């Protein structure tokens, strides 16, 4: 840190403690900015850290930001490695004539310092102002590479007596707003963020403009940025479980975005919000660049936020600083830096950029009390080389938790069994000669005929349990999906039947069968409103079970009982042919929610014998209302519908459409190519 940068931070602290008047404070600031050769990025970072630490008055903070922004505009050249907002040379505008002097603003000021209107090219709105006659800017709550974020009162919500009339608004920075593609950038940011619908990602509403001011509206989060925790004077790290909760929330957000082709590109503590409800939210996907560019994304070649080069050097990977194409491993490096800070209270490389740390040969030191396995995971994620860095977020989180690689372990175990079997077979082959050793000693000995035991008296066979006697009883149970398994005199029934019929009644009917000695009822009772669902899919469910259950779905939770706030996580498998997976959640309120495919999980094509876990990234969270719901896995040989269904719709309407599609596919591919499995879950409030 330069002396001037240090003096800037020092001046802010003295001012906040009351040691400087407003005029003295801004005089020191102006001197520091006039003589400092540091980039605006570094100055903004110092300003942001001090604001996070001690919460400057909003007008003071806004005035400081304007001074730094104007400093950047006045410089003719910019550094390439350490600027916070790097402008692509082909996008730089021609020099503008100096702005005309304007009269001082008439809005009353709460502080005793004077702003210099001659230095401002235009009237900038801030705390106390209203955008488009609707959004009242009440508090400055942060800033990022694109703009300043305000807490704002939505007058429309207030008029409608909304319980939460507040939103967050990000207003573009001066230098970014002057960029010729800024409006495109914000429009793209809004569009991208709207597709990233995840519990750990801030919800983005829309973008608009008020004269020259362009802004983005999003959900207001009651909480504080992680940077405030990390920059607290006495912060020396936190316990591993608490840190893992924060890292896990951020990791789920990143993994969700990566699955959809987006890299955050500016992950840092200030972009992770800890809400008052102990939730973790990632914000500011504003410079996320598409690393998987779908063919249908016609806008991908129109604007690349990477041309703006916004990043935070302390958390940017070497590849980002070298302007290479974005990759999920760039976010992993940033997340690893944040993880290290959470555990130790300090940056792994003393806040040096990755390229500076690499060139200096720095190596991170193992945090105190961190296990060997966890340290190995963290160290791999901090690698300066993309090729040796942890390849995906899910793996980083799994290894940080100390979980074993289940798939690899099973594979090694299987191969070990094969080797052992081969070794035993070889041993037996060596020890077993082709001729009997007895033949070498002399003539063979005549075999002695075994003594036959006396024959028991013949008794007539007992009557056997017949499948044709079980089937009529099961067929007489309405609204059911039941499959029998008969072994000798034992009968097992699996499936679902209505609570109005009852398992006891079915048991009484089956106990009347001749030849039955053992009866096992492995059935679940469902409410009558699920009858339409059961009746629709029962034939396909029965055929799937009789064929060995190639299509299956289960919950991770034992007993399928989920509590408020739990993630709905489902394990599923598909049959031995290429198929399309449909997972639908039939709620007790009469609606069906489409989990797969859906706007959150569009891809649903599966290879033969495919096994997957869905929802592990926190896609679906249990909330009110609580009750018993039904989930259906429907596997089809072709896409069920040509386009995407609404994420939620009426169950009768959906079943009518499904029935039509299944009839067509059964006629074309055969009924055996359609498979169904059910899982019933119970949700309840957290005590």
What attributes characterize this protein structure?
GMP Synthetase, Chain A, domain 3; 687 residues; 34% helix; elongated; Immunoglobulin-like; 19 helices; 6-stranded antiparallel sheet; alpha+beta; 24 strands; 7-stranded mixed sheet
Instruction: Identify the overall geometry.
Output: elongated
For this structure, the CATH topology of the domain at 527-684 is Immunoglobulin-like
Structural class: alpha+beta
N- to C-terminal distance:
50 Å
Percent range for β-strand residues: 15-25%
* Count of alpha and pi helical runs: 19
Number of DSSP strand runs: 24
Largest sheet: 7 strands, mixed
Mean pLDDT: 76
CATH superfamily of the domain at 527-684: Immunoglobulins
Spans of at least 5 consecutive residues whose pLDDT stays below 50 are 1-5, 76-122, 293-305, 405-442
What top-tier CATH class of the domain at 527-684 fits best?
Mainly Beta
Helix content: 25-40%
Report the radius of gyration as a whole number of Å: 34 Å
Going by CATH, the architecture of the domain at 527-684 would be: Sandwich
Oligomeric status: single chain
């Amino acid at each position: 840190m330069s002396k001037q940068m240090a003096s800037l931070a020092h001046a802010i602290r003295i001012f906040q403690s009351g040691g400087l008047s407003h005029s003295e404070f801004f005089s020191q600031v102006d001197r520091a900015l006039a003589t400092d050769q540091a980039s605006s990025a570094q100055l903004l970072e110092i300003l942001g850290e001090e604001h996070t630490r001690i919460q400057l008055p909003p007008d003071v903070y806004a005035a400081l930001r304007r001074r730094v922004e104007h400093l950047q505009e006045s410089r003719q050249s910019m550094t390439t490695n350490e600027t916070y907002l790097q402008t692509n040379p082909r996008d730089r505008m021609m020099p503008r004539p100096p702005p005309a002097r304007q009269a001082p603003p008439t809005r009353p000021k709460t502080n005793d310092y004077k702003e210099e209107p001659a230095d401002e090219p235009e009237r900038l709105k801030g705390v106390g102002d209203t955008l488009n006659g609707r959004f009242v800017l009440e508090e400055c709550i942060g800033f990022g590479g694109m703009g300043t974020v305000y807490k704002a009162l939505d007058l429309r919500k207030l008029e409608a007596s909304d319980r939460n009339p507040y939103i967050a608004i990000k207003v573009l920075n001066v230098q970014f707003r002057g960029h010729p593609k800024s409006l495109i950038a914000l429009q793209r940011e809004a569009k991208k963020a709207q597709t990233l619908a995840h519990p750990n990602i801030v919800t983005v509403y829309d973008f608009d403009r008020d004269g020259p001011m362009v802004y983005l509206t999003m959900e207001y989060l009651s909480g504080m940025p992680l940077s405030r925790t990390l920059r607290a004077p006495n912060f020396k790290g936190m316990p591993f479980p608490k840190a893992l909760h924060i890292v896990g929330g951020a990791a789920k957000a990143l993994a969700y975005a990566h699955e959809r082709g987006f890299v955050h590109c500016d992950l840092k503590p200030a972009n992770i919000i800890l809400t008052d409800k102990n939730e973790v939210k990632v914000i500011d996907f504003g410079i996320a660049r598409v690393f998987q560019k779908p063919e249908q994304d016609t806008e991908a070649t129109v604007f690349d936020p990477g041309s703006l080069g916004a990043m935070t050097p302390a958390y940017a990977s070497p590849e980002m600083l070298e302007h290479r194409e974005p990759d999920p491993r760039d976010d992993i490096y940033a997340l690893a830096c944040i993880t290290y800070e959470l555990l130790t209270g300090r940056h792994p490389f003393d806040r040096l950029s990755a390229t500076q740390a690499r060139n200096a040969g720095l190596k991170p030191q193992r945090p105190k009390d961190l296990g060997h396995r966890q340290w190995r995971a963290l160290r791999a994620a901090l690698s300066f080389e993309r090729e040796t860095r942890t390849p995906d977020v899910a793996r980083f989180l799994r290894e940080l938790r100390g979980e074993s690689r289940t798939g690899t372990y099973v594979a090694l175990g299987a191969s070990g069994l094969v080797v052992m079997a081969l070794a035993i077979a070889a041993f037996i082959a060596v020890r077993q000669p082709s001729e009997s050793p007895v033949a070498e000693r002399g003539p063979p000995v005549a075999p002695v005929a075994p003594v036959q035991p006396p024959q028991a008296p013949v008794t007539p066979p007992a009557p056997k349990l017949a499948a044709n006697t079980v089937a009529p009883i099961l067929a007489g149970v309405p609204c059911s999906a039941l499959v029998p398994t008969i072994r000798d005199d034992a009968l097992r029934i699996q499936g679902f039947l209505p609570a109005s019929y009852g398992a006891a009644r079915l048991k009484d009917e089956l106990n009347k069968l001749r030849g039955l000695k053992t009866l096992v009822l492995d059935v679940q009772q469902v409410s009558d409103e699920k009858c339409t669902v059961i009746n629709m899919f029962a034939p396909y469910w029965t055929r799937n079970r009789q064929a060995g259950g190639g299509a299956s779905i289960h919950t991770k939770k034992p007993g399928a009982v989920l509590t408020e706030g739990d993630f709905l996580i489902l394990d599923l498998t598909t049959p031995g042919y290429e198929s399309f997976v449909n997972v639908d959640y039939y709620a007790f309120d009469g609606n069906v929610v489409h989990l797969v495919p859906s706007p959150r999980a569009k891809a649903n094509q599966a290879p033969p014998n495919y096994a997957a876990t869905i929802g592990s990234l926190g896609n679906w969270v249990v909330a009110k209302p609580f009750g018993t719901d039904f989930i259906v896995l429907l596997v089809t040989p072709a896409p069920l519908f040509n386009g995407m269904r609404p994420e939620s719709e009426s169950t009768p309407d959906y079943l009518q459409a499904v029935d039509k599609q299944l009839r067509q596919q059964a006629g074309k591919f055969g009924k055996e190519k359609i498979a169904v499995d059910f899982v019933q879950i119970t949700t309840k409030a957290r005590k």
